[in-house]
Protein 1
Amino acid sequence: MKPESILCPRPGGLYCAPGGFYIDPTRPVDRAVITHGHSDHARSGHGAVLATAETLAIMQARYGDNFAGAMEAVRYGQKIERDGVEITLVPAGHILGSAQIVIRHKGTTIVVSGDYKRRPDPTCPPFEPVKCDVFVTEATFGLPVFRFPKSEHEIAKLVKSAELFPGRTHLVGAYSLGKAQRVIKLLRVAGYDKTIYLHGAMQSMIELYERHGFDFGPLAPATADKKKDFEGAIVIAPPTALDDRWTRRFSDPLPAFASGWMGVRARARQRHIELPLVISDHADWQELTHTIAEIAPGEVWVTHGSEEALLRWCALNNQQARALHLVGYDEDEGEG
Ligand SMILES: [Zn+2]
Ligand SMILES: [Zn+2]
């Protein structure tokens, strides 16, 4: 069976015609399968949603109890059937609950990666490569210039800076879902045991992770009346808060930002980031190309991001590939 008759791009997203469902639809549909909880992939208003229990919990926290008509939680590895199409969710290593969607129909296997990375992440199980006929990949950082350093190395820079400048408040911009929790966990793994302060917008997702069994050590809200406490402290905030008057409550703030985009010097400069931390929840160029080489699928389909260089790499490596040009998944800088 031609893979295009099993899965094809439609204006609302990737559609599986024989199974009657969309993957990460960008508009309300009857049946949706969701890879993970980031807002460009997980939207409210669908009829029925199939996802991991963690992703459903994230959607519920964001959109309220009635975010979908019906929901079905599946475990990683559990086989589900929809009109003769077998669906399995497999870890993607991106954020808590993130999954690749494996579709099997009449002997053809298609894997939709969703967003993914290959580096270890203390907040979610690692990406599992699945042999397939078609591997549908993202390419957010699909350029050879994107080679991310070890996350531990970036965290060590942050800890060192906090030691060197005890009078300054280290304000770390980190996306509130996934990145913030990973940064805090990495700080703890690195032995940083002081209280970490949180912007108010961080609270609900931190609590959600805590309900899923994560222990982040001592945390406290970054409330205005405690100015003195913040000297030399690390404060985690959504990236948008760094440009905000909110930062004025801190003495001599030192703006940092944890994102794959911080690998681009101009971006860090433009945002007045003194301490860029290149920590991404996406695959960098090496992770993307190594993953394709490892899986060696019949075909690669690229959903969104910088597809051109990746397509060229595929051509040079005799890997059949094409771009799907899906729209609606343009991540904001913070999520990178
Ligand atoms: Zn994502
Ligand atoms: Zn995304």
Protein 2
Amino acid sequence: MDDADILLSDVGSHKLTIARRFPTYEPNTCLISNGLASMGIAVPGAVAADLAVDRSVVAATGDGGFLMNAAELETATRLDCDFIVIVFVDDDYGLISAKQADHRGEAFGTELTNPDFVAFAESFGIEAYRPADWAGLEELLDAQIGSEGLSLIEVPLA
Ligand SMILES: Cc1ncc(C[n+]2csc(CCOP(=O)(O)OP(=O)(O)O)c2C)c(N)n1
């Protein structure tokens, strides 16, 4: 991403990694839901960011947070937005599992039964990809950042 491009983070394990490791060079280029830390912000946040500025926008989200506001892909499509959605898929509320495992040695009630995210995005007419490995993800991001339209990249973690 260019220094002025905007990364939106949803809430979960991915947020902790982004907050600690994603380098920023200009103010307001990494927008994170902190404080009450509401999940589901990444996609509607990317819609708002794309409407507000003329820069590349990327939304990073876990599968749980994405599903909380997945219908906002309709808004993004209708408003002709240009951004990339990256969905990290572990079929789980990953951060909650990790916390439960820390507290009581096992996790309960955190598993998700996901749709096929690529097929879901394609059903809106959105280009969607499922790279086979991290190198494939990097290649895709290089190709997609700055391009027009919406795209969704499903990243299987399991
Ligand atoms: C609206 C809302 N509900 C519940 C929570 C509590 N919560 C924080 S992280 C998390 C799990 C996130 O799971 P996922 O989006 O799949 O991301 P991952 O941790 O797997 O990266 C939950 C349920 C929250 N922050 N916001």
Protein 3
Amino acid sequence: MYVIGQEEIDALARVVQSRALFRYGIGRECERFETRYAAYLGTKHFSLAASGSYALTAAMIAHGLGPGDEVLVPAHTYMASATSVLAAGAIPVIVDVNESLTIDPAALDLAIGPKTRAVIAVHMWGTACDMDSIMEIARRRGLLVIEDACQGVGGGYKGRKLGSIGDIGAFSFNFYKNMTAGEGGGVATNNDAIASRVNCAIDPCHAFWTGRADDAMPFAGYGARVSEFTGAILNVQLDRIDGMIAAMRRERDWILREIKNADNLGFKPAPLNSADSDCATHVFLTMPSAETATAFTKAFPNVIAGKTGRHTYTEWDQVLMGAGAAHPLMNPYSMPANEKCRRAYSRDMCAKSLDILNRTILIPTHPEHTENEIENIIHNIKTAAAVALGQVSYHEASMRDMGLLDKVKYDMKEEVG
Ligand SMILES: Cc1ncc(COP(=O)(O)O)c(C=O)c1O
């Protein structure tokens, strides 16, 4: 959660007062949000769902992905990107990321096998994937592109909104995301038939509630409908998002300008695929080694990308264990249709990613950071880098106190999931 205030309280109170808590035929908030957010993204359809995890699965189900199919996922993403593939009955195949912390297009090209049907491009930590390269490879090799824009809400790639560039986009509005309703998610597509299937996946009774005959054949979906509270709060959050992203981009660019001038320090900002359009929720610093990254974070407490505890494939227990479903007969890892899919994982299978992740530091920005706080962050980055690279001793370094309020913001951002 970045910014939340009286406007959200008022919006929720209005829903309670109206007693219109159900979205179909009673309330109007969800429908209003779906229309507004689709226009914001520049897509024809947007459908709210209960979570980003289910939005991803609904996107895959809608495109007919399932048993017999491999879906490429990056080695660094929240576990749901991979488990959502399993929930659709398909098999996730793990692919290296590069220094941008997003899927490496060269590794993606090499990873495509005879059973591969799709790739999930995850816009991790608010930065954009290299969408031009990913789309070129996907079109050339006949893959579907599913954008996981759960961490990329409000951001873009070369002027187009994240989640609107591939064949389908999935979003999260959980507590840690750029726009939040506490929980929530949704799917964006330009394709009418796919949108019908997405709606059926989210709510098998969608056609009944809306009174619209769906184009697609109905099927048993899971049930991930949201209440009017979700729509109401997101309508307010949508009014805030552009201002928040602009403030974070100003902060990120200011810090990057200052770091560029400190080129004698021996570390570098990670490459960005679309600095003008992305969310800028973090500054990424690439250190020369895991040891220097650890020393940096000892001086200036921040998170190392490889040490968040759950964003790297080595922490995806269910995937590594082959526990693809609750019921053994529904486990994609043991389905005969998946026999020819690649299902072997090992902890060191993406060693290149692990090396990059263990030396990349994530420094969060915040829309409410003051100029003074940003100056302190810049000071701390330079000082911590000097300590980490042995130019100043830990005891000589004078770090600036970020203050209690800032610490609270940091704690919350560290949890970004
Ligand atoms: C990259 C990514 N994908 C998927 C998800 C799943 O979203 P949710 O937590 O709303 O299910 C998250 C969020 O936690 C995420 O960060």
